[in-house]
Every structure is written in C-alpha cells, then in structure tokens.
Design goal:
Blueprint lengths: L6 E7 L3 H12 L7 E6 L4 H11 L6 E5 L7 H11 L4 E6 L2 E3 L3 H8 L4 E4 L1 E4 L2 H8 L23 H8 L13 E5 H6 L13 H11 L3 E4 L5 E4 L10 H14 L13
Parallel strand pairs: 1-2, 1-4, 2-3, 6-9, 7-10
Antiparallel strand pairs: 4-8, 5-10, 6-8
Helix pairs in contact: 1-2, 8-9
Length: 266
C-alpha cells in the first residue's frame, strides 16, 4: 500500500483578502487535509493580517502567517521563506486567488512519486461568476462545473490521472506556480526560487527548468488537482521578457542550483 506523504500547503497572497478568504476556506474543506497551511504574504496591508487572525481560530490544522514588507514584487522571496518554514515532506503551492476543489490535495498526494513533480489543473472563472462567488457566504460556497471554454479542466476523473500523467506532453517544461506539488527535499536541493528574478513572471518557470535539469521530471496532473481561478486584471508585466530570457539561459546552461535562494532562511 502506498504511503501518503505529509504535506504543507503554501498560499501566496498580496492585498486581496476577499479572494484569500475563499481560497483558505476551500483548504479547510479538503478531503485530505495538509499538515499545515502557510500564508505567504508579499507585503499586504492590515486587512489581510486581520483576516488571517480570524481564520486561525477556525482552521482544522495549524495556520501559519509569513509576511514581509512591501518592497515591490517579491514572490520568489516569500515563497522561499514559506518553503524554509514548512515541515511537510511534500510542498503544495497555490495562489490566494484560487479556490481549491475539495479533492485538490488528495489528488496531488495520491500521485506524488519519487523523482517527479506535478503541475495540476486551473480553470478560469468568468468575471461574472467570480463576482457572484465572492459575494456569497464562504462557509456555504460550492462551485459546480459549467459548460465553458476548457470545460474539461473542471472535471475530476481519478482513474485517468495516472494514465494522462504518463502520456501528456512529456516534453513540456513550462509551468505556473499557482498549482504545483513538489518534494521539499527536491526544492532544497536546487536552493528553491531564484530571488535575482525581479518583477512579475518566469520565476516559477525557472524553478521547473532547474528541477528538470537536476533530474526531477515534470508530470501534468489532468482530471485532478483542480483549482478555480478567480478573475482579476492581469499584473503589470514589464520584466516578463527579461525574466523569460534568463529562465531560457538556465535551460540552455543546464543550471540546477542558484546562489540566492531558500538556504538563507534555513
């Protein structure tokens, strides 16, 4: 019988407490709870701190708050701090603007295997649907599949998960950091996120590239590991080209471990 690893759920957030509350409450309702939930806050104001304090009293597992001052986009840094603090063997990484399917953690942990990391499904909610969801009491919140573009991304079919992971886009190495399952030891081995990336974009892709360069393969979790993305305007992307070029250079040079990473917080 497969042994299910202990897990730490890391939720990254910045100044959107309404969405964060929906995300955290969806974590409370998981059929397989994490060992702990760590809020990785990239410099939000007092409203987020007050929300987390309220949610701590309701959380079924330890709810840990990690915050640093707002000095621009430092997602790589706050995620590294969360990874350093995590006590679970397996890191589940999401953003605070997604609502988790009740079996999100269960799917990731059931598929976890040595030598691989997983990127799960993200379904984009429409602006109207997002607004309606955020306007309802979160304790009774339910999201049901609706016919839409990429409707398949809402569907959970457990017996297809391993079949698809072994076959789907094996040469694909681009990921987004809002839905990842990675062994903590593998993150420590490559020194986590590269904090020399500045501004929005590609720090998560670079992480995936260096994991693969180190021999840890990417698998895409389809028909499982589902999350629902709450609509918002896109972030400012002035550095996306420069950051993408740096990630591609790491791919070309087969870089694994970087200098400015998680080890400074261990």
């Amino acid at each position: 019988m497969k042994q299910i690893p202990s897990s730490s759920l890391l939720i990254a957030t910045y100044n959107w407490p309404e969405a964060l509350e929906a995300s955290v409450r969806s974590a409370f309702r998981q059929t397989s709870l994490p060992k702990e939930i760590i809020i990785c806050d990239d410099g939000s104001g007092d409203a987020t701190k007050e929300l987390v304090q309220k949610l701590k009293d309701e959380s079924p597992v330890p709810l840990i708050y990690m915050w640093h001052p707002d000095e621009g986009f430092q997602l790589a840094t706050i995620r590294n701090k969360g990874i350093a603090l995590a006590s679970g063997d397996y890191i589940l990484q999401v953003d605070g603007d997604v609502i988790l399917h009740k079996d999100f953690i269960k799917d990731h942990l059931n598929n976890a295997a040595d030598g691989v990391f997983f990127s799960g499904n993200r379904f984009y909610l429409s602006p109207d649907r997002s607004s309606k969801i955020l306007s309802k009491p979160f304790k009774r919140m339910r999201i049901y599949p609706k016919l839409a573009k990429d409707s398949w991304a809402q569907l959970r079919i457990p017996f297809l998960q391993k079949f698809m992971a072994d076959r789907y886009r094996k040469s694909y190495h681009y990921v987004i950091g809002c839905n990842l399952g990675i062994w903590r030891k593998d993150l420590i081995a490559i020194n986590g996120y590269d904090e020399s990336f500045t501004g929005w974009g590609s720090e998560d892709w670079d992480l995936a590239i260096r994991l693969e360069n180190s021999g840890v393969g990417l698998r895409l979790l389809r028909f499982g590991g589902i999350q629902f993305h709450i609509f918002h305007q896109e972030n400012q992307r002035s550095n996306v080209s420069e950051n993408g070029s740096r990630a591609l250079q790491h791919l070309h040079d087969k870089v694994t471990r970087i200098e400015k990473g998680v080890d400074q917080y261990l």
